[in-house]
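Lab notebook, design round three. We kept the backbone fixed and only want residue identities now. Task for the bench partner: fill in a sequence for the structure below.
Input structure tokens:
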């Protein structure tokens, strides 16, 4: 059982945190109030109505969210200029702390490319080895894969990695037989089995890479701060090749330092958890962070999808501190390489964040935790609100025109605007909104300009400025698509439609034109119809709407072209969207890239084989079969799994009959669950290996004959 925190020296004084919260959010509220008064004045001049009330309410909500983002940039900028001691790495000396405890580094995966996962693990392992502290860390690959080919590939690649690194007893592999509660259930299953052996564990994502020094520093920080339950690093995006990926990577590396500094200003030790690249104190996490089942049916009820925010809130509720170690470098991850792939990930996150609407009112949560949850929800709800704002605006304009009312009915109650036209008044509000949106980007450039070494890592100030301008243009076109996507996600969730648990596409081959048309035809149609309607309503209004409409109308070419590696490479040649990990790559990223290039060249030389190749290898290849069977035997020694095998009838005649059917008619005639049942029985797998090689060809399905010939040719 976890001991309650006994000291509070790293916790910011309550009054200090209160003043920070008050100053930060009051600044956003004052700015929102000022601009909202200008907007209300504009609406008042054209005659008040119910629709104008709705428009004003929507404007206040949307502008406040924008103002909060702006304040993150402003406060973060001044913190980076003047410095602060209210950050975890500055509270106590920790570099001389000795490591005397063991830490587990876990990689939960689900039908991922095991080559990429294990090469990331290899880079992290070798980096830790260079620190001389490798003996204090163990690695675990926690598989939830349901694809038989992925399963076998994971086992084979894991065994080869252990052999290459001479890491027997340091890198472990475990695949769950029953995938309950997705990633959070995967982590909990590991902790229930292994957690008591480790004081801390580091949760990584499938594409995570971490520097050894960073991992050592995280453990040292936990050791010198006994009341800290979780430390979240800020992962840098790396290895992007498409134009879209490079733009996202550039924005992440340039803007994040300012924004996260601003977030840490008011959050302090009431920070948040983003689900990966974080170190967690095992005992309190096991004791307090077992996620509840939400009441009601899916998509809002049942299992919590976005578990990370909730786990941080539960940790804070029990007085364990949660920090953002935003100044620790050496934490990396990858991101989707195309608009559509990014939207697919956003859909999953949207449902998870909307579920937090039920968590907000949980008893005992900290107020700051509720703020984190609310902002996470509005990250998606803001899109339908923005769409509603535009629709209501068009409605008011339409009524104004067809009723032929005067565009200005009364004078402004602001004496300075009394002689301004309605267009000038609206333009003033537009300019203020643009300043609020663009100010954090400008401050990020100023922050870059004052740091000569960092400026060189971005290719120089001129190239960085060009990158910001191009990124802003792209974001302007991308924002309407996100608005429509998020609106659709929110509405489908409200309608009770849940999302499946899909694997993230981390490839960068590019989006095909036909596929883009299938995904974006609705966006294009909405843009054309909306543009036609706006032009008919008022050509002048049409030009105001051009930034919104352009992204919709040109969504197909925007999606296809930004997914191309060639355009990403051309931008890199021009010096656009450069990041420190490209101009001065750390050893971990260099190692990962070089190893992945070797795999790509090897794959290009290997002839393509048909589906179910993993199943064929597990049956035909004695080496792969031995690995697979040995892991199954070890698993059945576990009482929990043994009970499960008995419950599902594994190893009975029914599974042997499925194996017989597999040999006679081929894997295509078996259901996915039947193939998995066969592969989960070690006795049947041994029997299949023997039978596949000793049976006459006439008693084997044609598929097996072809696979045996392919395997024999490859071996010869």
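Proposed sequence:
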């Amino acid at each position: 059982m976890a001991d309650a925190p006994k000291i509070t020296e790293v916790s910011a004084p309550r009054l200090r945190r209160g003043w920070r919260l008050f100053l930060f959010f009051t600044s956003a509220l004052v700015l929102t109030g000022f601009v909202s008064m200008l907007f209300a004045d504009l609406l008042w001049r054209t005659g008040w109505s119910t629709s104008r009330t709705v428009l004003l309410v929507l404007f206040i909500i949307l502008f406040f969210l924008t103002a909060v983002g702006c304040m993150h940039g402003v406060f973060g900028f001044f913190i980076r200029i003047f410095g602060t001691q209210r950050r975890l790495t500055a509270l106590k000396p920790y570099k001389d702390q000795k490591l005397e405890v063991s830490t587990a580094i876990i990689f939960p995966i689900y039908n991922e490319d095991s080559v990429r996962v294990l090469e990331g693990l290899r880079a992290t392992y070798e980096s830790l080895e260079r620190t001389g502290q490798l003996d204090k860390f163990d690695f675990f690959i926690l598989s939830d894969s349901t694809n038989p080919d992925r399963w076998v590939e994971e086992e084979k690649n894991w065994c080869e990695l252990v052999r290459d690194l001479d890491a027997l007893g340091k890198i472990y592999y475990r695949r769950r037989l029953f995938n309950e509660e997705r990633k959070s259930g995967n982590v909990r299953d590991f902790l229930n089995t292994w957690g008591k052996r480790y004081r801390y564990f580091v949760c990584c994502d499938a594409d995570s890479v971490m520097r050894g020094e960073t991992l050592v520093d995280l453990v040292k920080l936990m050791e010198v701060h006994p009341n800290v339950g979780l430390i979240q690093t800020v992962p840098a995006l790396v290895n992007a090749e498409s134009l879209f990926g490079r733009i996202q990577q550039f924005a992440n590396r340039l803007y994040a330092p300012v924004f996260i500094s601003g977030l840490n200003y008011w959050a302090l030790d009431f920070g948040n958890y983003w689900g990966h690249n974080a170190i967690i104190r095992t005992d309190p996490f096991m004791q307090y962070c077992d996620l509840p089942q939400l009441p009601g049916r899916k998509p809002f009820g049942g299992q919590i999808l976005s578990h990370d925010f909730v786990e941080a809130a539960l940790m804070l509720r029990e007085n364990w501190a949660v920090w953002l170690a935003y100044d620790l470098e050496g934490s990396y991850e990858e991101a989707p390489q195309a608009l559509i792939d990014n939207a697919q990930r956003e859909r999953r996150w949207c449902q998870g964040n909307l579920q937090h609407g039920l968590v907000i009112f949980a008893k005992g949560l900290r107020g700051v935790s509720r703020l984190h949850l609310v902002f996470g929800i509005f990250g998606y709800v803001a899109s339908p609100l923005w769409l509603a704002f535009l629709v209501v605006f068009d409605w008011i304009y339409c009524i104004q025109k067809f009723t032929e009312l005067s565009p200005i009915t009364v004078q402004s109650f602001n004496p300075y605007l009394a002689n301004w036209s309605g267009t000038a008044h609206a333009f003033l509000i537009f300019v203020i909104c643009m300043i609020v949106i663009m100010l954090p980007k400008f401050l990020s450039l100023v922050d870059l300009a004052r740091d000569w070494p960092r400026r060189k890592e971005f290719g120089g100030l001129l190239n960085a400025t060009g990158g910001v301008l191009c990124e802003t243009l792209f974001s302007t076109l991308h924002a309407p698509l996100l608005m429509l996507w998020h609106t659709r996600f929110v509405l489908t969730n409200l309608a009770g439609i849940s999302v499946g648990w899909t694997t993230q596409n981390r490839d960068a081959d590019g989006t095909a034109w036909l596929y883009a048309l299938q995904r974006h035809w609705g966006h294009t149609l909405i843009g054309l119809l909306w543009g036609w309607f706006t032009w008919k309503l008022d050509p002048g209004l049409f030009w105001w709407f051009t930034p919104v409409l352009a992204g919709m109308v040109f969504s197909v070419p925007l999606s296809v072209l930004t997914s191309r590696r060639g355009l990403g490479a051309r931008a890199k040649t021009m010096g656009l969207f450069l990041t420190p990990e490209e101009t001065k790559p750390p050893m971990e990223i260099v190692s990962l890239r070089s190893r992945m290039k070797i795999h790509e060249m090897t794959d290009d030389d290997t002839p393509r084989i048909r589906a179910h190749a993993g199943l064929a290898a597990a049956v035909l290849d004695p080496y792969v079969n031995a690995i697979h069977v040995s892991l199954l035997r070890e698993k059945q020694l576990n009482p929990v799994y043994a009970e499960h095998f008995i419950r599902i009838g594994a190893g009975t005649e029914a599974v042997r009959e499925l194996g017989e059917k597999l040999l006679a008619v081929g894997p295509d005639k078996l259901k996915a669950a039947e193939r998995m049942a066969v592969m989960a029985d070690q006795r049947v797998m041994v029997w299949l290996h023997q039978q596949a090689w000793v049976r006459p060809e006439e008693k084997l399905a044609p598929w097996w004959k072809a696979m045996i010939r392919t395997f024999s040719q490859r071996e010869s």
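Keep this in mind before ordering anything: Residues 6-10, 504-508, 605-609 have pLDDT under 50 and may be disordered.
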